[in-house]
From TrEMBL:
It comes from the Bacteria. Keywords: Coiled coil, Kinase, Signal, Transferase. Residues 1-24 form the signal peptide. Residues 125-152 form a coiled coil. GO terms for molecular function: kinase activity. It comes from Pseudomonas fluvialis. This is Chemotaxis protein histidine kinase CheA.
Length: 270
């Protein structure tokens, strides 16, 4: 027989353990095992919610082997197809048409009769056509730019050639009356016979330029001796104006029967 003290201790322990021992009676489902198929379906739903399409498809294929004909899998397959379509629509908006096309094919494979797939395919084709048109326009613009650049380059080359030719022409002495390659050039002076002083002065301007440029010796052929000083003075004044340091070599020749003329003979440079 228990002593009063031990009896009180036993009652205290019974009062403490009573609720614990009654837990299974109050919550019988707490001791039930978890259904692996239900757990797998929850994991599939979680993958679909998080947009993990590849993982969700693998989980769906595994469940099809275990739960063939389960209507819950049909709904999951529809959700998976819609998930691929959402990925495709997003990729199309971002301009990644290859990824959009791949996602559309995945959705079509999972649910061939999904009308949303046809709409996505149509938007992809429209985007492709728009990209092709834009690419063609950019290519045409680039070609036109290249053509314009080549034309401008050709124009610049032509201008450069013209400038070079002009520079060469400017550097090369230009003859007014004589042939620089000939040993001498005979220039007629009919204005002495006609007393055309203006024409004679104009001719002397050109003759003086050749005399200075090509270092010419001059012989004046006249009908009368009185004509020589006048012609010589006109020519000397013009030569001196062009080159004050130039030493004019000038002589006369009388030929009453011949037309007056100038004979200019280029001299080699000393």
């Amino acid at each position: 027989m228990l002593s009063p003290r031990l009896r009180l201790l036993a009652l205290a322990l019974a009062s403490l353990l009573g609720p614990v021992n009654g837990l299974a009676d109050d919550y019988p489902e707490a001791n039930l095992p978890v259904d692996p198929d239900v757990q797998a379906l929850k994991q599939l739903e979680q993958s679909l919610t998080q947009g993990q399409m590849s993982q969700a498809e693998s989980q769906l294929n595994a469940l099809k082997q275990r739960l063939a004909g389960d209507t819950r899998l049909e709904q999951a397959q529809r959700q998976l197809s819609d998930g691929y379509l959402k990925q495709g629509e997003q990729a199309a908006r971002q301009g990644d048409l290859a990824a959009a096309q791949q996602a559309a094919q995945q959705a079509q494979r999972l649910l061939p009769n999904n009308p949303k797939t046809a709409a996505l395919q149509q938007s992809i084709e429209q985007a492709k056509a728009k990209q092709a048109a834009q690419l063609a326009a950019e290519r045409q613009a680039a070609e036109q730019k290249a053509i314009a650049a080549r034309a401008e380059q050709a124009r610049q080359q032509q201008l450069a050639a013209q400038r070079q030719a002009a520079a060469k022409a400017a550097a090369k002495p230009q003859a007014q009356l004589i042939d620089p390659k000939a040993s001498q050039t005979q220039i007629a002076l009919p204005m002495l016979d006609t007393q055309d002083r203006d024409a004679l002065r104009a001719l002397m301007d050109k003759a003086a330029a050749d005399v200075v440029t090509f270092r010419c010796a001059v012989q004046v052929q006249v009908r009368q001796a009185k004509d020589y000083p006048f012609v010589a003075a006109l020519l000397s004044a013009r030569v001196k104006k062009l080159d004050p340091a130039f030493k004019l070599q000038i002589s006369q020749q009388l030929a009453a029967e011949q037309e007056p003329s100038l004979q200019l003979s280029p001299q080699p440079k000393s």
